Amino acid sequence: MPRSLPHRDDLLIAAAGLLGGLVLYALGLSSRPLSGLPRWVALVALAVMAATELLRRRKPLFALAVGTAALTVDLCSGNLVATTVMFTDLVYAAVLYGPPAAYRVLPRACEAVTVIGTLLCLALIQRSEAVLIGLALAVVTIAPAWTGVGVRQHRDAADAARLAAERTVLLAEMDRREAVVAERARMARELHDVVAGHLSAIAIHSTAALSIGREDASREALGVIRRDSVQGLAEMRRLIALLRGAEDPGEPAATPTLDSLDALLDRTRAVLPDGRFTVRLDDARGPEPLPAPVELAAYRIVEESLTNAVKHAAPGPVTVELTGADGRERALTVRVTSALGGDGTEPRAPGAGAGLVGMRERVALLGGRLAAGPAPGDAGTWEVRAELPLNDVDAPPNDKEKNA
User: Fold this and answer.
1) Exposure string (b/e) for 53-88, b if CB count within 10 Å is 16 or more?
2) Better-scored residue on pLDDT, 197 or 10
3) Is 49 within 8 Å of 71 (Cβ atoms)?
4) CB 3.0 to 4.6 Å from 276: which of 151, 177, 315, 382, for a disulfide?
5) How far apart are CA 292 and CA 286, in angstroms?
6) Domains of the chain with CATH codes
7) Is 35 in a helix, a strand, or coil?
8) pLDDT tens-digit readout, 341-397
9) How far apart are CA 71 and CA 316, in angstroms?
């Protein structure tokens, strides 16, 4: 329906009021005129009042002003009840559909008009019937005004509740999308960190098996390929089971810890068996237990750094250092150094550059810092240095705390 046309309910109210007033006039059911105006003028006031009902939603204050004038004329020419009833609806509509100022001011104005009108009637008539006129004013003005206030408050509360519900749904959808993105990033990090090392070893030894003519060397390379393929396949199955929720919830998945770094270094040494590399671990963490998120992040950083060393480092020492800082700013420092490969040769295994991205994401989730590049003061050494804070992460309880 176009905006220029009145609402259907407004049309029904206007038609009902006009028809009722005509029936009352035809039956002679009107009060005595307050002035010398002829009775037919009440029909004009009735028609004007019915017309203002068509504007009760679009222009409620203008309709109320015109309706007030029409009601005054109606009272002076012989009041029709239908005209008064339509006026009460205009008061109600002005409060309900009018601007906020009208919503706040009109009920108080109606109360003031009722009090002043009652006092004037008492002063002019000086009889108890003046109180009845005050009651009639209250019914015509105060009652519809405060009814409009109640309905408007209920409507505003419903609108606010609907907006709050829509906002809650929107925030929930945003949280869901963020959770999905975060979970995808976590799965990507785990998949890369778990499988990349095995695939790099397979690529290196398959290249060696193809390029070395000795049968024993090829057999040894194929053995390493088979072992890393089996381990990589087992890791892939574990990740797939986690994604599908196939594991028993009562048995948590095994999370690698720093205590298994020796096995990780042994696997790295097996990938580089020619003796040109030396892999060494310097563990100075201290006896205090570390939070599980910190241990997992440190392990994955060392794992990825060793994988990058296997693929890109020049022959030389590969050192893994773990140190813990005490004091107010407690943190675990992970430092992995290797000889910087810069002779222009191709890497021993291809890389996509996702490893550094994953390491930075892990460190950022713990509020730490990561630096990867040539070591300061030693241009021939590649250094990965991560500082993982411990203060904001809950550490697992030690044996004494468990026994307590």
Assistant:
1) bbbbeebbbebbebbbebbebbbbbbbbebbbbbbb
2) 10
3) yes
4) 315
5) 16
6) 8-168 (no CATH), 255-404 (3.30.565.10)
7) coil
8) 655 455 555 555 567 888 888 888 888 999 988 888 877 888 999 999 987 555 444
9) 103
